[in-house]
Amino acid sequence: MSQKQNLYVGRAGQVAVMAEFLLRGWNVALPEVDVGEDMLVVKDETGELWRIQVKTATAKPLQTGYFAQFNVSLSQLFGERNPDLVYVFAIRDSEGWGPFVIVSRRQLALEHTSHGVGSISRDDLILRFNVQDSYLRCSDRNFLPYRNDWSRWPVLRH
Questions:
Q1: CATH second-level architecture of 3-146?
Q2: What global pTM score does this model have?
Protein backbone atom coordinates (compact mmCIF):
# COMPACT_ATOMS: atom_id res chain seq x y z
CA MET A 1 0.00 0.00 0.00
CA SER A 2 1.37 3.40 -0.93
CA GLN A 3 2.04 6.06 1.69
CA LYS A 4 -0.72 8.20 0.19
CA GLN A 5 -3.21 5.31 0.39
CA ASN A 6 -2.13 4.71 4.02
CA LEU A 7 -3.05 8.33 4.81
CA TYR A 8 -6.52 7.84 3.34
CA VAL A 9 -7.07 4.55 5.18
CA GLY A 10 -5.84 6.06 8.46
CA ARG A 11 -8.09 9.08 8.13
CA ALA A 12 -11.05 6.84 7.21
CA GLY A 13 -10.48 4.87 10.42
CA GLN A 14 -10.45 8.08 12.46
CA VAL A 15 -13.72 9.22 10.87
CA ALA A 16 -15.32 5.80 11.50
CA VAL A 17 -14.34 5.95 15.17
CA MET A 18 -15.52 9.56 15.42
CA ALA A 19 -18.87 8.56 13.90
CA GLU A 20 -19.28 5.80 16.49
CA PHE A 21 -18.68 8.25 19.35
CA LEU A 22 -21.12 10.76 17.87
CA LEU A 23 -23.80 8.11 17.36
CA ARG A 24 -23.37 7.16 21.02
CA GLY A 25 -24.03 10.80 22.02
CA TRP A 26 -20.49 11.87 22.89
CA ASN A 27 -18.87 15.08 21.67
CA VAL A 28 -15.66 14.74 19.69
CA ALA A 29 -12.97 17.35 19.10
CA LEU A 30 -9.99 17.11 16.80
CA PRO A 31 -6.83 18.72 18.19
CA GLU A 32 -5.39 21.42 15.94
CA VAL A 33 -1.91 20.21 16.85
CA ASP A 34 -1.16 16.49 17.03
CA VAL A 35 0.70 15.93 20.29
CA GLY A 36 -0.11 12.25 20.60
CA GLU A 37 -3.84 11.81 20.25
CA ASP A 38 -6.16 11.90 17.26
CA MET A 39 -9.27 13.08 19.05
CA LEU A 40 -10.67 14.16 22.37
CA VAL A 41 -13.98 12.69 23.51
CA VAL A 42 -16.03 14.78 25.92
CA LYS A 43 -19.13 14.14 27.98
CA ASP A 44 -20.72 17.56 27.65
CA GLU A 45 -22.75 17.37 30.88
CA THR A 46 -19.75 16.70 33.15
CA GLY A 47 -16.69 17.72 31.16
CA GLU A 48 -15.17 14.22 31.44
CA LEU A 49 -12.47 13.89 28.81
CA TRP A 50 -10.72 10.99 27.07
CA ARG A 51 -7.67 11.13 24.80
CA ILE A 52 -8.12 8.75 21.86
CA GLN A 53 -5.43 7.42 19.53
CA VAL A 54 -6.87 5.67 16.48
CA LYS A 55 -4.78 3.09 14.65
CA THR A 56 -6.17 1.75 11.39
CA ALA A 57 -5.34 -1.33 9.34
CA THR A 58 -6.85 -3.18 6.42
CA ALA A 59 -7.56 -6.85 7.11
CA LYS A 60 -5.49 -9.48 5.30
CA PRO A 61 -7.16 -12.87 4.72
CA LEU A 62 -6.04 -16.07 6.42
CA GLN A 63 -7.31 -19.60 5.80
CA THR A 64 -9.83 -18.91 8.54
CA GLY A 65 -10.55 -15.30 9.37
CA TYR A 66 -8.04 -12.55 8.82
CA PHE A 67 -5.32 -10.54 10.52
CA ALA A 68 -4.57 -6.84 10.89
CA GLN A 69 -1.22 -5.35 11.90
CA PHE A 70 -0.60 -2.10 13.75
CA ASN A 71 2.44 -0.09 14.88
CA VAL A 72 2.35 1.67 18.24
CA SER A 73 5.07 4.10 19.22
CA LEU A 74 6.92 2.84 22.30
CA SER A 75 7.39 6.38 23.59
CA GLN A 76 3.62 6.91 23.39
CA LEU A 77 2.86 3.50 24.90
CA PHE A 78 5.05 4.11 27.95
CA GLY A 79 4.43 7.85 28.31
CA GLU A 80 1.77 8.54 30.91
CA ARG A 81 -0.73 11.35 30.28
CA ASN A 82 -3.58 12.80 32.26
CA PRO A 83 -6.19 11.84 31.29
CA ASP A 84 -4.60 8.67 30.00
CA LEU A 85 -4.72 7.63 26.37
CA VAL A 86 -7.08 5.00 24.97
CA TYR A 87 -6.22 3.18 21.75
CA VAL A 88 -8.93 2.29 19.27
CA PHE A 89 -7.61 -0.16 16.69
CA ALA A 90 -9.93 0.12 13.70
CA ILE A 91 -9.93 -2.86 11.36
CA ARG A 92 -11.39 -2.60 7.88
CA ASP A 93 -12.28 -5.89 6.22
CA SER A 94 -13.98 -6.53 2.87
CA GLU A 95 -17.43 -6.00 4.41
CA GLY A 96 -16.81 -2.84 6.42
CA TRP A 97 -15.49 -1.66 9.77
CA GLY A 98 -14.98 -3.92 12.69
CA PRO A 99 -14.15 -5.07 15.01
CA PHE A 100 -12.81 -2.09 16.89
CA VAL A 101 -10.27 -3.20 19.49
CA ILE A 102 -10.41 -0.71 22.37
CA VAL A 103 -7.72 -0.82 25.04
CA SER A 104 -6.24 1.77 27.38
CA ARG A 105 -2.60 2.72 27.05
CA ARG A 106 -1.94 1.42 30.55
CA GLN A 107 -3.59 -1.96 29.85
CA LEU A 108 -1.78 -2.38 26.52
CA ALA A 109 1.56 -1.58 28.18
CA LEU A 110 0.75 -4.20 30.83
CA GLU A 111 -0.18 -6.76 28.15
CA HIS A 112 3.21 -6.14 26.56
CA THR A 113 5.39 -6.12 29.69
CA SER A 114 3.59 -8.93 31.57
CA HIS A 115 2.49 -11.20 28.74
CA GLY A 116 4.84 -10.42 25.85
CA VAL A 117 2.13 -9.07 23.56
CA GLY A 118 3.55 -7.68 20.33
CA SER A 119 7.09 -7.49 19.05
CA ILE A 120 9.55 -4.61 19.08
CA SER A 121 10.81 -3.14 15.82
CA ARG A 122 12.98 -0.04 16.20
CA ASP A 123 10.86 2.43 18.19
CA ASP A 124 7.52 0.67 17.71
CA LEU A 125 5.52 -2.15 19.19
CA ILE A 126 4.09 -4.25 16.35
CA LEU A 127 0.70 -5.80 17.10
CA ARG A 128 -0.87 -8.45 14.89
CA PHE A 129 -4.50 -9.21 15.67
CA ASN A 130 -5.89 -12.51 14.37
CA VAL A 131 -9.66 -12.24 13.96
CA GLN A 132 -12.46 -14.76 13.47
CA ASP A 133 -16.13 -14.58 14.41
CA SER A 134 -15.63 -15.44 18.10
CA TYR A 135 -11.85 -15.20 18.23
CA LEU A 136 -9.54 -12.23 18.69
CA ARG A 137 -5.93 -12.89 19.61
CA CYS A 138 -2.68 -10.98 19.68
CA SER A 139 0.55 -12.89 20.41
CA ASP A 140 -1.53 -15.82 21.68
CA ARG A 141 -3.34 -13.59 24.18
CA ASN A 142 -7.12 -13.44 24.19
CA PHE A 143 -8.21 -9.91 23.22
CA LEU A 144 -11.94 -10.67 23.07
CA PRO A 145 -12.59 -8.50 26.18
CA TYR A 146 -11.37 -5.50 24.15
CA ARG A 147 -13.46 -6.29 21.05
CA ASN A 148 -15.94 -3.43 20.55
CA ASP A 149 -15.63 -2.52 24.24
CA TRP A 150 -17.37 0.85 24.21
CA SER A 151 -18.31 0.42 27.91
CA ARG A 152 -16.41 3.60 28.90
CA TRP A 153 -18.78 5.48 26.61
CA PRO A 154 -22.32 4.14 27.02
CA VAL A 155 -25.02 5.45 24.70
CA LEU A 156 -26.20 8.81 26.05
CA ARG A 157 -29.76 10.05 25.73
CA HIS A 158 -29.99 13.76 25.03
A1: 3-Layer(aba) Sandwich (3.40)
A2: 0.94
